[in-house]
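HUMAN:
Just now I want nothing more than another pair of eyes on a protein record. I would be glad if you read both lines and explained how they fit together. I have put the entry right below:
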Amino acid sequence: NYFYQSIPPESLDEFIDDTLLLSIDLVTDGFADTGKVEFQYIYGIPPDTIIDPRGAQPYGTSITIPRGTHSRVSHYNLYSYFRYHPEPPPGKVLLGARVGVFVKANAQNSGRLFIDNLRLDVVSPYNDYSRFENYDTLKNWTLVSGNGVRFVYGQFSDGGGNETGILYDSIIVDTTKPARKIASPQSGQTINGEIKITGWAYDYADPEQHFKLYELKYMKNNDPEQNWYGVYPDSISYTPKYPSLPPRTLGGWDTREVTEHHGNGWYYLKLAVIDSANNYQDTIISVYINNPDAPEGEISGFSNYLYGLSAGSEIYIGEFGTGKIYRYDYNHQLVDTFNLIDSMGIGFPVAMRFDKTGKIWIANIISQTINRFSNQGNFEFRFGGNLSLPSGIAFDSAGNIWVSDRLHHKIKKFNPSGNLLFEFGTKGSNYGEIDRPVGIAINKERIYIADSKNERISVFDTSGNFIGVIGDSTGLLFPFGLVIDSTGCLFVSDFLGNRIIEFDSDGNQLLVIDSILDSPSGLALSLDERTLYVSDTRHKRVLAFVVRDEPPDSAGGGPMGEEVQIMRPFLFEKIYPNPAKGILKIRFNSPNERKVTIKLYDVTGRLVQEQWLKVKIGMNEVLIKSKTLSAGVYFVQLETEGCKKTEKAIFLR
């Protein structure tokens, strides 16, 4: 016994390897037979067209008809989906297909079948598919593995068989944590004023669709309450920032607001990134905020103005008018002196620099010469010729000497024997031109020039090609001395602006030292680059400022190393999702193994849950299950030695 519908092969050609759905409305009344609902492939040799319906045929899918009585009306209550993939035997071709109800003929059979709506639908090769079932507010779905966007489809039907249109929504499957990096400032740096925080924050899996937000927050490192505050004025952004050179601005930070409310000192700066699947990733560095930046110490007692300054194993200070060079140790105790004197008399040591062999080279603008001394102050060698107010000295990695020739508006390169190798520079105010260069500094293949008359720092490569400018928007009045550290951060003395400005390697302002200086000129960094020394010219002294330091809780790597994930104190990171349905997660960071108590209170203050647990070093996550709790507002309290934190949470049913 059978009931079927034939399908010509050309009707199925475009659906090869697609998913097809076979479905039927079927009611049984005392059915005791063996029956199936099937999709069958029909193979043969043309021009064969007549196939015995009762013969065994290969099938794509087969549904066994249940025995007994099933009289409940249910829309498409029998269904099965399958891959349409005909495979004709050798020598045969696909003649067609059929769908139908097939019952095995048997004298013992009994009962009745009522059938309607026998259907064959194309679903697609990728979607799982289900049929109408009893309505519920929740539905479990099994999604295809892997990251990406999934679409869930739904349709509704009433008891009379009336159907809605197909509804759908997208689900983002993303198990990859987002990427984050703070490029500037660097851990261990001293900062003040208003700075730019640069770096990147984006989602690995799908940068365009999966990114949610990033936050910039700070916390004082010894705050017992561990309160994180949003960076002002740019604490949150919903726009991803991708890696680039130079790094992009994540946000501005007015550190004066921090000093006003919490004082100067060490602070954690956190960049936290969340994607659309609520994957979370953060990075934390330590910075020292100092508004205004006060000196750590000073060297004074000089009779004349000070200009030239350099630091190696000791600090060397040049005095105008006497031509005397003073040697001080790092405890600011005088070691010795020597004189810069030549055939023209007393010299004017305007610039000084150590080479990599420990020799000190001094620019004398009286005799227009460059002079080399041992580190004990013994004269060894000088060269000059066609120099007019040589005002800056720097060394490249090959040991060549670069000199700023101020009144010739040139930068000149000499070998250690004083032979001119190369020069560049054109007087003017346009970009790529310079006017009265003073201090110079070299970092790899870049030359930074204190372009004094143009009130900016001009940057060239070592072949004399113009690259760009720094500081033209900071109001420099007369850039004089330059010194650059091993990370590429540049310190500039503004002689007429009475200040020192530090720029990061991308030209963003990090630090300003002002209000106590009068015509600062020479600059030098200690060997560990922790301390910046400044010739406070008209005050006839040298001031020392801490510009780098090891964070008090650093995991190591040194203040000049790459950004490191510091060993944090016990930090209550976050609770999520909030509001929560079913499970609430609590995330916190512990510097060691310890005991933690988690308590849950309702709005009346009644303790409704309490957990004691021993946590591991690093990031921990604890689950609170809400199955036994009523919907409403609760308070989660996390308590451990030296820390107690309470957060509000909302539970839904």
Remarks:
- Residues 255-262 form the longest helix (8 residues).
